[in-house]
Structure formats: C-alpha cells, structure tokens
Amino acid sequence: MYHDHSLKARLLKMQKCYFNTSYLLFCAFCSLLQVSYSTEKQIYVPGMDKICLIKKIGIRQEILNSIGLFMSAASFKYCIAYSYSDYRRYNYSIFAYNEKRRSCSPLYDVPEENIIDNCSEQLHDLQFYKVSNCLPAEGFMYSFEEEVEQNVSKFNAVKLKATNEICIVERHPFNENFLLKRTGILFHQSLEMCLAHCRVLSGRGKCSAVLFSGEEKVCLLLRQNELLQSRDVMRKGASQLLTLNYCYDSEFENFVLIIYKCKIL
Questions:
Q1: Is 76 contained in some domain?
Q2: Sign of the torsion angle spanned by Cα atoms 136, 139, 141, 142
Q3: DSSP string of 132-188, one letter each residue
Q4: Which pTM was predicted?
Q5: For the chain, give me the number of helices (H) and strands (E)?
Q6: For 112-168, how does the pLDDT look when each residue is reduced to its tens digit (9 = 90+)?
Q7: Domain count within the chain
Q8: 113 and 190 share a domain?
Q9: Which of 59, 60, 144, 196 is an S-S bond match for 160, by CB 3.0 to 4.6 Å?
Q10: Is 171 in the same domain as 235?
Q11: Are 236 and 146 in contact, with CB atoms under 8 Å apart?
C-alpha cells in the first residue's frame, strides 16, 4: 500500500516536472517569436524611392472584421507604398498581406493598443505589418546587399528600338544608387524602355544611369556627379543599377554586317 502511494507521488512529481519543462520551452519559443515579430528591418521601396522601417506584428481578433477590400496581384513592396502616407492619423501605418495570393489590404485607424506581439494569438493566412517611417533614399548609408550572385556579366549591349541605337550598359552594386542624384521616376514595363528614356535625357545631362525594379515596373532616372566604384563582386537584388557607358547607331552595325557578308561571298 505504501509502495503504491510512493509510486503515485513519484509519477505526480514527474508529470509536474514535465509540465514545467514544456511550459518553459513554450515560453522560450514564444519569446523568440516575439523578438522576430518586434524586430524592425529596413527595406527599399521602389515605388516611393524611400527606405521604410517595417516590422511584423499581431492584430487582435476583433480588428479582423474591419479589414476592407483586398488588392490582388500586388507585390509586398507595392503594398507598403500603397498603405503608407506622410499625412496619417497615427505615426505609423498598418497593412495585411497574403504572400501566396499576392493580395494586400491597408488597415486604417488602428490604435496602438490593438497591436500585439503575443504568439498565442495566431492569425489565418494573413501577415500583418507596421510601417513606422519612410525616409528619402538619396544619400542613405546602409547596406542592403544579400548573397553573392555568380557568373554576372557586368557589361551588356542593349538594343534600344525607340532611339534606334545599341548601348553598352554597365551593371553596378545596388547600394551605389544611393550616391546618385535623382532626376525622375517613371513606370515602364521593360528595362529597354527605361534605358531609352534615360538615353533621350542624357543629351541634356539629366540622366546617365537607371535603377530598374522589374517586379514593381519602376524606372528611376539617375545622374552621376562622379565615377562609381568598380567592384567585381555583385550581389543579388530586386533592382538593377545600370550606367549608360556609350551608344552608337544600330544602322552602323547593320552596315558592318553587310560588308562582312560581302567579303565572305
């Protein structure tokens, strides 16, 4: 009888110990998750040409009912630009984003008390983000470069149908764009059209380089006041920084080809 009581007491202690250990592990996991949620990161938003401070947050369940219509086929950076405003009620903006569906919805007038970092309140397929501030990108000193991109061709010949030219362009590391003067921002479907627009303005000294963001279809026109650094290492990025080194008439290339063919014949 005594042996049974002793065994039950030991089992009860083991259960309590297991519960306490599990609870501590859960709390540790929750704390790590909260840190990942509450850490701000900097992200370049091409549509605004700004650097935004953003972090992942939680939203209380009752706020979900106030979510409005979703935009479809929206990129994450486009959603930041769409939801952010310098003239907002609070000193931050909030939006919901579904990466799988590429859908986005701004949340307006969400008080600070409805923003949570509690991992016990998980939300469906949506992720919620808080944008605390966005600053002009020109002159910004920060490295956004990621992993090294292999087998990158720094120099390429691009045919510009709009100007009937072939231009030699040079690719540079993304971070160097912050050193260049902004002269305009356009929305073009292709890199070719972006370069052609820059080429037209180059005669007036208004453009010598472009920052093209393919996903956002944003063409940023830039002007160099000094030569950019030449570095062999190129890193992956969503935007390409290209300088127009020189251009020549595409008819000249056709003329050379005709002469070459005549010599062969």
A1: yes
A2: positive
A3: EEEEE-TT-------SBPSS--SEEEEEETTTTEEEEEEEE-GGGGGGSEEEEEEE-
A4: 0.75
A5: 4, 12
A6: 777 776 444 445 678 899 998 999 999 887 776 667 776 677 899 999 999 999 999
A7: 2
A8: no
A9: 196
A10: yes
A11: yes
